[in-house]
Amino acid sequence: MPQSIRSILGRPRVTKPKPRSSSAQTAQSSSPRKKRPPPESQDDALFPLKFGDLGAAPILTPQEELALRDVPQAMRYIRSRMFSAVPGSGFTSTRTAEVLNYRVSIPPLVTTGHVHAVLTSSPGRIEREVVELVGKGVLRKVRVERRGGMGEALIEAGDLDEMLRRAAASGEISDAARAKFWQVLQGNAAAQTIEREGDGDHGLTASQMDELVRAGFLTSSTAAPGSTLHVRPEDRTTLTSIQHVSRFASGTVSAVGGPNAIHLAGGGGGAPALTRRGGGLAAFRIAVPGHGRFLKLADGAVDWVREALGKTKWGEGPESWLKEKFEGNGLYGTRWKEFWGVEWEWVLGQAVGLGVVEVFETGSVGKGVRALGG
Asked: Where is the composition biased (Low complexity) (predicted)?
């Protein structure tokens, strides 16, 4: 009986898959592909609803509030809790030295708004106490122009005296300049500016004023166009009006200030006329060295709080969530990388004192923090 070739050779070891029917492919391709839903932000997903508001909540605990009875105590409390201790491990020796040197350069200042945020007394009572202490020479109020509430701060007179002594010991100012400046401060406890009265016993000499300006204890009270030597760098402006220059075509003499640009800038023998125009500096504003660095740190921390709340759906969130977000990632997080290990309580106090946020009781997740758009 004849056999087929397949029966003799047997089944092949490799079998080809059967081709799919065209109807199945058509049905699969015709079915619409599902679109992925747009990813929602994590903060919106966490806080889709507004929190309950049972009223304003204090920043401090009741025990801490009882321990603070006056403005000097509140200032010392704020300063003692500004930075956390530098960890013994986790940083290189270079980074540790950098952090410690930065903290030493921060002056012992406390903003007036932070004092109001910590104390539970009425604002009027706190302000009267500040005025009384300033008049007695216990405190001194210093201001930085065009910085709003952040630019007004308080410093204890003893701390300012210690800063002057350290500056004299390091050679930044002479002992005579330190003694005369301190005498002037004691005689004008509430003064914000000091006038140069000549070389007599009632005023600082020109050389002493120059020493104090270079050390950061004095700055210009007005940004006079004729002299910018004693003006803070951020207050210095050019002598040529940008609006005036922008009216003229590029490449012309008028576009660079006109034919008298060099003369108005003090060159070409124009310095005497410039001095007459500015009138000279008759007064200097009392300052504290490192105040600008303090403001930069405080502004950056408050901006972080504002941005964090701005990412939520309703501009509010639990304080515990904000604290965890601020202190997240340990030594490699924002708190240590950008803000030198500043404490969360200090940051919250600054934000509340400036009116940027308010703290309220939610009744469900503890304290909440709400942005006010300040």
From this structure: 21-31
Cα–Cα dist 252/181, whole Å: 50
Angle 83-89-92 (CA atoms, 0-180°, nearest 5)? 90
- Side chain identity at residue 65, one-letter code: E
pLDDT score for 48: 84
DSSP 8-state secondary structure symbol assigned to residue 365: S
Sequence-distant (6+) residues with CB within 8 A of 49 are 314
70 to 66, 137, 257, 341: CA distances (angstroms): 11, 16, 56, 27
Residue pair 80/72 in contact by the 8 Å Cβ criterion? no
The CA distances from residue 370 to 40, 84, 310, 346, in Å, are: 21, 25, 10, 17
Percentage of the chain lying above the pLDDT 70 cut: 69
Q: List for the chain the helix, strand, coil content (%; round to 5).
A: 45, 10, 45
Segment 43-60 mean pLDDT = 83
Return the SS3 of 100.
helix
pLDDT above 80 (res 229): no
Residue 43 CA to residue 49 CA, distance in Å, equals 11
User: How remote is the C-alpha of 269 from its chain's centroid?
Assistant: 43
Q: How far apart are CA 261 and CA 272, in angstroms?
A: 15
State if pTM tops 0.90: no
Number of Cβ atoms within 10 Å of the Cβ of 239: 14
Instruction: Check if the beta carbon of residue 362 is closer than 8 Å to that of residue 51.
Output: yes
* CA 200 vs CA 127, 183, 204: distances in Å: 36, 13, 8
